[in-house]
What does this fold into?
Amino acid sequence: MIAAHFPNRPKLTEFLGTQLRSGRLALFLGSGISMKLATGDDGLLMGLPDWPTLMNNLYAIKELPPTIYTKNTNFPQVAEDFRLQHCNGNNGYWLDCVSKALYAGGDLDFSLIRKNGTLEAIGALVRTSLRGAVSEIVTLNFDDVLDRYLAIHGIVVVPTFEEKCWASRGDIVIYHPHGFLPSPGSCFQPASSFVVLDRSSYSKSAPIMNQKMKLVMQSHICLFIGLSGEDERLDKLIWETKDEGNHAYNTSQTGYWGVAFSASYNQAKARKWEERRIYLQKLDDYHTDLPNFLFEICQSAASR
It folds into this structure.
């Protein structure tokens, strides 16, 4: 039965606060944290593009109208069509085009972005404290908004995106399994040699990075933030983790091994996550109530 283990929000924050104190809390982040980052002085929203806008920006590089894909909402296929038709097998040019489409707005204004409540709350979860800290972050975004935000606050961040990499010292390692494209003016270099954006890149296997993500899932209570649950690669790993015997929760009897969030909650969505043994928490809204919830986890951990 849905919500059987968490009859109310305080009980859930208490449970997650305990996991934070134990170093067992991990974050899986999606594009929801990179869009609508701040409101500019002109009153317009700042942030990175959603799928349709990203494709629009991509085709605008070749001065092509967006109408060429309006009848096709399979955006990975739209991206693959662009790569095959306009990049002539040049991977470097493809990555350059994606970067230009991603950061079409130019330099990121972190004087405004620093006021973003969700990033602020994630930063609070990551900071070393006697009440514990998030030990692992996996982001399916190839932007560096979170990496730069944490670095501005003096947190030593190690972006990790290649299949084979050396162990590194840092306050937090952020895994970028879909690739990594630093923003203009970023202190983080270099970019990855790939991005998971077009259809073929979603189809290709990346066994080492999949193994890393699955290890994080299987040994932590995971918060899924800014994710719709539609990413096939992630969903496959979630199902593999959910299978009996693959997650530590089977021995601790917590029932759920993850929590997702939705401001448009309904029973169908809840059951979808429930099947994967992930609890769906209803939010009043995504941009104020989510940060409040994450801060409540920190406060619960500290109070105990």
The radius of gyration is 19 Å. The chain has two domains: 9-40+110-303, 49-102. The first helix runs from residue 9 to 21.
